[in-house]
């Protein structure tokens, strides 16, 4: 093996130092077989850098592998964000914290680290329409996906539709198991539409099936005290809330709707014209 390596140390700098053709094609072949396209792309440039900077073989190998791993991780992150089915891409960076003095910034910063997901903890965002619940849910979901967790977003109504289809097909358990493969599910808009008894029971089963095993992030326009109205049954609602909040961060958001605020500002601008 050593005989095939040309010694180029000390030669004049060039874009790429000359090396035997067969080495290029061999490396192209090897990186293809290993499915490491990044290595195929960067090994030459890094080899030149390594010679110029007198890197050890170990340092060179580490640099090459690091580039491959970084590319693979970022491709994985992009894929996880895509497959989470967020209704829009809203990031925490885009979220104006000044508008929401009621939001505990330290708690949000902690949730943004996504460490709640491997612990199977939950997050509940409560507050009136337009306050930013869905935005925050997506922003936190993206953070969780970028931390390597599989995430799936849907509205409460759509989750129920999915579960009742499975239930009618006699495959509810299998469906719940499938959903458990997602480390974090986001259930948006609990409370906008009341559930009938079947839907309430399915929702309860969804929450129960993930208890201490996988995370849920729920948003609702209603405080817990009114969930009995949504689920048509105080007992079911209480049992579900118990499981949901046992290991959870509950953020209650208060203030003006961001949508209304944007509209007010537009109107004010119009009046001042
Ligand atoms: P909710 O789900 O609580 O009804 P949304 O998250 O849908 O509210 O917010 C309504 C709109 O206002 C969205 O377009 C959202 O991106 C935006 N928005 C809400 N709060 C903020 C904020 N603090 N900073 C930036 N945009 C916000
Ligand atoms: Mg919303």
Automatic annotation (TrEMBL):
<dbReference type="InterPro" id="IPR002611">
    <property type="entry name" value="IstB_ATP-bd"/>
</dbReference>
<comment type="similarity">
    <text>Belongs to the IS21/IS1162 putative ATP-binding protein family.</text>
</comment>
<dbReference type="InterPro" id="IPR047661">
    <property type="entry name" value="IstB"/>
</dbReference>
<dbReference type="InterPro" id="IPR027417">
    <property type="entry name" value="P-loop_NTPase"/>
</dbReference>
<dbReference type="InterPro" id="IPR028350">
    <property type="entry name" value="DNAC/IstB-like"/>
</dbReference>
<protein>
    <submittedName>
        <fullName>Transposase</fullName>
    </submittedName>
</protein>
<dbReference type="Pfam" id="PF01695">
    <property type="entry name" value="IstB_IS21"/>
</dbReference>
<keyword id="KW-0067">ATP-binding</keyword>
<keyword id="KW-0547">Nucleotide-binding</keyword>
<feature type="region of interest" description="Disordered">
    <location>
        <begin position="1"/>
        <end position="21"/>
    </location>
</feature>
<feature type="domain" description="AAA+ ATPase">
    <location>
        <begin position="119"/>
        <end position="251"/>
    </location>
</feature>
<dbReference type="InterPro" id="IPR003593">
    <property type="entry name" value="AAA+_ATPase"/>
</dbReference>
